[in-house]
Backbone:
């Protein structure tokens, strides 16, 4: 390779891609209107901030949310069984009790959704 004196960029970087990645690069170059791969690669690599997310501190919270969702499903099944029993006995309190249970479940679900949204949004 011929070395050109006084070149602004004297360090060469190389990398390999598979066919799918190559097609994606070509598509992105076409969309941006950049025809020179070196220019495209420099802009793609140097003009964007790279960051990492560490979700390790949220693992316990996510685990608790998952367990709570499972528990909510079990509670819902229990409520359905209670409703069936009350309806079979023609108890006049069935509608009132079911409404109260349903309101409590919806409130709990809303709180869980808020926590999940808060975690996912950061």
Residues:
């Amino acid at each position: 390779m011929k070395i050109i004196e006084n070149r602004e960029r004297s360090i060469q970087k190389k990398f390999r891609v598979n066919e799918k990645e190559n097609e994606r690069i070509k598509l992105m170059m076409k969309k941006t209107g950049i025809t020179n791969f070196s220019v495209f690669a420099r802009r793609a690599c140097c003009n964007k901030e790279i960051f990492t997310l560490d979700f390790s501190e949220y693992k316990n919270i996510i685990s608790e949310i998952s367990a709570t969702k499972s528990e909510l499903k079990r509670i819902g099944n229990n409520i359905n069984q209670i409703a069936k029993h009350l309806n079979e006995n023609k108890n006049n309190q069935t509608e009132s009790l079911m409404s109260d249970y349903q309101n409590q479940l919806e409130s709990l679900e809303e709180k869980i959704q808020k926590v999940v949204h808060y975690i996912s949004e950061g």
Q: What stands out?
A: The helical segments are 19-32, 37-46, 59-88, 94-121. The two ends are 49 Å apart (CA to CA).
